[in-house]
Design goal:
Blueprint (H helix, E strand, L loop, with lengths): L17 E6 L2 E6 L4 E5 L4 H10 L10 H4 L17 E3 L13 H6 L7 E5 L2 E4 L2 E3 L5 E5 L23 E5 L15 E3 L3 H4 L19 E4 L2 E4 L12 E3 L3 E5 L2 E3 L5 E3 L4 E5 L2 E6 L2 E3 L2 E5 L2 E8 L1 E5 L13 E5 L2 E4 L14 E5 L5 E5 L2 E2 L23 E5 L16 E2 L2 H6 L4 H5 L13
Parallel strand pairs: 4-5, 5-8, 6-9, 7-10, 8-11, 9-12, 10-13, 11-14, 12-15, 14-17, 15-18, 16-19, 17-20, 18-21, 19-22, 20-23, 21-24, 22-25, 23-26, 24-27, 26-28, 28-29
Antiparallel strand pairs: 1-2, 2-3
Length: 436
């Protein structure tokens, strides 16, 4: 992004009250209501181990937990994983690892067909680029004690139990596109990944990339500096469908990008940043996410939209639901955030940003939103900025800019501000069984 620094919810039901895991000489039934029955003709160690570990899981993936949890060295890390899962480990002596880098594993895959990669514990200094069309799931390993009963996985402090970090330290220098700095890119090709400058950005591309990308329990970090040195992206998701579960994303400026014709969903995760650290040109839903202000500059969200002629029925925008905006625990002690941060500013005059039942700490300024810069000194009524049921010291909407919409429950229902309503379908690429 070419700019100067400047209440109750319902957990989706599980289809079955228990899931079946079968081995050659036993059957294990695992109850989602935390009851465990093991029927066994013999105590086969691997399956008994997995079943015992699963017994109190909450705020993780019931589908992938058996695969993700670390096992003793005598047991294959791939036990409990989908068939043909690839294991990546930085330990070159690990006999179960097919690859020692994530990108090499991705490049080994064909363009079509579903694939799963389990990433072993470690800090991976690399960039990850995904251009394939076929569904791809990246799983970060979890510690053996990752049960987290009855509380969300997301945690902005060092208590976050994710064992996998993917990081790089690229930032945008003169003449470079923002995309050059991204740690994780999900886009069909380089042209589609480009972000461009100004209110229209890079040229529209006649392509689409990954139809179903998922990542679980991975921390994606741009470590370019410990301040807003320049644009330094953690993600660039463009012309693709992507969802993230129990992850974190860290930078200072432009942390998260949902690009053109992209649809993204994030849940039970944390985003760290300072300047416009959510920005985009696609459709993004953030559910039960923590937004951690490392400092204040620009706004939290800088989005842009397009007209209905170019994109009929589009609902491009950033939608933030049941989430929290806080001062980051790793903010410099001398950094002032109180009454200093804006909720957002319009990247172009068709920007859409909606906050639903979100807690806002004392960092949020009473006006809420600000104009983009001195060259565009007003927020036009062609933008759509809205809030419903905001809470916390910064959630008082009495002083908001006049162009903002303060919604009622009836407004939210009428405009269908739901996941299905925003994505214009019940997205098959979202894991609604993830527990949080």
């Amino acid at each position: 992004m070419n700019r100067k620094l400047s209440a109750a919810r319902t957990i989706p039901p599980v289809d079955k009250s228990r899931s079946r895991w079968a081995a050659s000489n036993e059957t294990v039934f695992i109850s989602y209501t935390r009851r465990l029955i093991i029927l066994s003709n013999s105590m086969h160690r691997p399956s008994f181990y997995l079943a015992m570990q699963f017994s109190f899981v909450h705020a993780l993936s019931p589908t992938y937990y058996n695969c993700q949890v670390e096992k003793p060295q005598s047991i294959s890390p791939l036990l409990g994983c989908p068939t043909n899962t690839i294991f990546v480990s930085q330990d070159v002596s690990n006999p179960y690892a097919t690859f020692n880098s994530i990108q090499s594993a991705i490049e080994s895959l064909p363009g079509e067909g579903a694939a799963t990669i389990l990433i072993g514990a470690g800090s991976y200094h690399e960039t990850v680029n995904i251009s394939r069309n076929g569904p791809l799931t990246l799983l970060g390993q979890l510690p053996a004690n990752a049960t987290l009963a009855a509380k969300p996985f997301a945690n902005p402090t060092s208590a976050n139990m994710n064992l996998v970090q993917i990081w790089n330290n690229n930032f945008v220098m003169s003449g470079q596109d923002d995309a050059s700095s991204a740690v994780l890119t999900v886009a069909p090709n380089l042209a589609a990944a480009l972000i461009g400058a100004g209110p229209t950005g890079a040229p529209l591309q006649p392509v689409f990339g990954n139809v179903n990308f998922k990542a679980y329990n991975i921390d994606i970090q741009n470590r370019a500096a410990n301040f807003a040195i320049s644009q330094a992206l953690a993600t660039d998701i463009s012309y693709a469908n992507a969802s993230f579960y129990g992850c974190s994303f860290a930078s200072f400026q432009d942390t998260w990008y949902t690009g053109r014709n992209a649809s993204t969903y994030m849940v039970d995760s944390v985003v760290f940043g300072q300047t416009d650290y959510l920005f985009g040109f696609g459709t993004a839903w953030f559910q039960n996410t923590i937004f951690a202000n490392r400092a204040c500059g620009g706004g939290l969200v800088a989005w842009k939209g397009t007209n209905l002629t170019d994109a009929p029925r589009n609902r491009y925008g950033a939608y933030i639901s049941d989430s929290k905006i806080i001062r980051s625990p790793d903010a410099n002690a001398t950094t002032v955030t109180t009454n200093s941060c804006f909720l957002g500013r319009p990247w172009n005059d068709l920007a859409v940003t909606v906050f639903l039942s979100t807690f806002m700490d004392q960092s949020i300024r009473s006006a809420g939103f600000e104009p983009f810069n001195s060259a565009r000194p007003a927020i036009l009524n062609t933008t759509f900025y809205a809030e419903f049921n905001s809470s916390g010291p910064g959630g008082n909407t009495a002083g908001r800019v006049s162009v903002e919409h303060i919604l009622t429950a009836a407004d939210v229902k009428a405009q269908d501000f739901t996941v299905d309503g925003v994505f214009l379908e019940h997205p098959k690429w979202i894991d609604f069984e993830y527990l949080f």
